[in-house]
Amino acid sequence: MSQKYEKLKTLLKELFQLDQPDLDFGLYRIMHAKSAEVTEFLEKDLLPQVQASFAQYKTADKAEIETALAKAIEQAHNLGADPETLPKVKELRARLASEAVDVGALESEVYDHLYSFFRRYYAEGDFVAKRVYKPGVYAIPYEGEEVTLHWANKDQYYIKTSEYLRDYAFRLRPDDEKNPMRVHFRLVDAAEGEHGNVKAAEGKERRFKIAMENPLSVEADELVIRFTYQPDAASQKELNAQSEAAILASSLAEVAAWIAELGKPFVRADETSPGSRLRLHLNRYSARNTFDYFIHKDLGGFLRRELDFYIKNEVMQLDDVESETAPRVEQYLSKLKVIRRIAGKVIAFLAQLEDFQLSLWSKRKTILDTRYLVALCVVPRSLYAEIAGNAEQCEEWRNICRIDEVRGDLATPAYSVPPTEEFLASQPSLLIDTRHFDSNFVYRLVDALGDLSELSDGLLVHGENFQSLRLMGRSLRERVQCISIDPPYNTGEDGFPYKDQYKDSSWISMMVDRLSECVPLLRPEGAAFVHIDDTEYRFLWHALVHSFGRDAFLGTLVWKRRSASAMSDRTLSLDHEYIIGFGRDASKTVLHGLERSQDDYPLIDLKTGRRYASDNLTIGMTREQRPNQYYSLTNPRTGNVFPANPSRVWRFFPETMAKVIADDRIIWPDEYEGNLERPRYKTFFDPENMKPKALSSWIESVGTNDRDSEDESDFDREVLACGMNAEGSRVIDRLFGHKSFAYPKPVSLIRSIVRAT
């Protein structure tokens, strides 16, 4: 067998993933069922099929003709005759020049072309979109559009990796039925942490590493290697190197044979190597939790189109066809047919595996659990006794709502343990969480409520976003008025992985699949807004055009997310972000300016009876920047002095501030019943300024960035056009007591976007 044939066979084994773990669930079960058929093709059918295709040229085999010619020449010399004068020698030389076929070279050429073609689209058994043929030649699908958007992963679904903690096993000698030398990676300890599709906070990522106690043993004729999955500051690559060294250094006599096999180098079909066979499997085992991947939407069609292009541009040489004789052209065409036929069979095998994964991914997923948050005001009174007797629910109310602080008065019953039905009836806004109740109670509650879709004012779906959107596609089709999306910005700091290193292409594939699922949800007059910064703005706009259509573009809003001083160490401080707007039908979409409504002025001035809102009296400028606005304020009624804040200044010059104080536009902390640390400004409701205006593309961030009041109730009344990231961070800190995640959007920004629609 030729070296090129063996090289091709090694590559195809990688493509068909015949060296994958010895697992017995999910897709692996299908792959194992297919492996026998694939192995039969590689070991018994591939070589004979290629040889049979060229069997017709055996009578003109170059090697056989050369052997016959040498024999004729030798006979002529034995007879003392000039070989070149003999008819037999002349005939053989003529056949050698015009008809001879180097069958061995033809076969090797076929193997070489098959190897070259498939190597372009696969790396370590996974499909990747490498489509370059040679310098200056690159093929992309194009059907004559004026402008088309293309990216490397365009025809693939982006799949997020979720928690994957099953055992992992493989055979070191898969062909040896008596002694396959099975190796089993077993997880013996895993710390609780972020799971599903939620990425762990920086520094808290969990890693696979070799167990400290009893790491290796032989059980039931297989080597068991034990691992833990715990938070660790080291990278997974470093830990894999440590695990490899520890395993290969084992001195246990019973594992020596396995260690010898695991320590052998592993060489891929492309002649690259991860190191030892053990390192290969350590990398695969640990990577399944960290690498996202892709599924091709039509792998068979793609590879067949690419094969035709490859043959036309890499194999067919028209100059050779024109200059050759008819027999030579026939041989040439036979080679093309063989390449196409054999490659077609390989493509058919690959497509079956990919299509099966595609069918699993496309299938609508099952809802694993459904819970409800129901206000007591709509719960039948007949269920109150069970609710009052639920200790977990009452504990949650005490922690979140502080119901144990209700002392009671003539109109409201006091809290007791357990609470009375009368107390529950007096608290209509309390929410019961059905996770605290058994299924029988939940069934009776849901049955009593009737049409849940009409009663529900909110729906939270916890799941992979693509599948969640598909799930909502039926119940919410053409019912959504506003969509607000805050995707990963793809800056390299948000944990977005790229297995095939196509950073922008992977991101676009992820976005397009999900944006396309959003379009059917929108009402004809609805609008979708997507947040982004400069990193991916240009690609996001094209992705939205791809999903919604160019005519659906509404415009781009620019939001100032932070003050320039926050990034003063940069040459160019990028203090803004974008919010791109697209409508379902732009001609029907109406957007309103981001003004306040009457509801945003919840307070009543006792002297004038006018409604007002409590706003910041300071701005985010320092004493050095605005020295004339740095001074102390005195409450003229109490004489209390409020010193200036070194990091902020008052929003008015002293002369204007004096007029503001005289007009009683200040909320003084020493006269305020709530917890107010700094003076605030009264913004009065003016109906004349409430007229609808066109939505401006510039979102001004005024008064909500560096709030120096810590009063939560006062904060909730603050509804300016929008705040900055610092506002969102403060909300998160107040809710959870720590920084749960970076760069949260301020509530006022999302509220403004929703209000605009």
Main sheet record: 5 strands, mixed
Number of separate helices: 23
What is the rounded Rg?
37 Å
Structural category is alpha+beta
- Residue-averaged pLDDT, rounded? 81
State which percent range the strand residues make up. Answer: 15-25%
Give the beta-strand count: 28
The residue fraction in helices comes out at 25-40%
Q: Sum up the overall morphology in one term.
A: elongated
Low-confidence stretches: 702-721
User: Alpha-carbon distance between the termini?
Assistant: 70 Å
Describe this structure in words.
This protein has 757 residues and is an alpha+beta fold. Helix content is 38%, strand content 15%. It is built from 23 helices and 28 strands. Strands 6, 7, 8, 9 and 10 form a five-stranded mixed sheet that branches. A hairpin with an 8-residue loop joins strand 11 (265-266) and strand 12. Helix 5 packs parallel to helix 11 (326-362).
